[in-house]
Amino acid sequence: MAGTDQNLTDLVNRALVFLGEKRITNTDSPESRAGKMLVDISGPCRREVLRRVSWNFAETWASLNYFGAAPQNFDYQDLYALPDDYIRVVDLPNMSVKSAIGLPQSIEDYRLIVMNNNGGQQRCIALNNNAANTLPMCYIADVTNLSIWDPLALKVLAMWMALDVAKGVTGQDGLVQQLSEQLTLDLQDAVGVNGNEQRKRRQTFSNVQKDRELAYLGYSSYFTPVTGYVPDPN
After folding, report:
1. Is residue 15 a contact partner of residue 159, using CB atoms and an 8 Å limit?
2. CA 178 to CA 194: how far, in whole Å?
3. What is the pLDDT of residues 63-82, one digit of tens each?
């Protein structure tokens, strides 16, 4: 991310406040070691936070191009190239293939793999799609424009960055623990709000609905293992 981005400067300064460190004036030449560390990790931390949650603001719809037939002796027939900004799958809408007896069957089984491509590598999704030219997919994209981030998610990102460097910057185990506990609460709150804002039609099971229900019960599916919990199908 470009250091001249004022949104990035604001984000880094927010993380510095969590650490009890002085603010910086820009991210091109941070005036402190802590500021430089936060600028350096901002990209990886952004992708980590996006990977954690199916954020509404980062949801993207696209038609993936057919990459080719999958290698033989595997359980999948078709490969589709994942976009460069791909972070995680949200949904494969309205997709079906013909079953062995000729009836439509929803695509539920897929794998994410890397394929060699003209001397390079291409991330692909492997599944059975009757060798169609395109594959509609809803996914979480790497949204680098911080101005369109949800405010709660942006706070989570700032705290995530602060926690990532807290030990190296301050050496205070107590601060690390404090930030970790606060991040868990803030992430739980952000996930709950994110889930409540989504009114997606449910056919069998919705990850967004699960997030909402877990948050309502005081849990987070990202930090607190929950066993024996079955979402209400109604």
Report:
1. yes
2. 24
3. 999 999 999 888 899 999 99
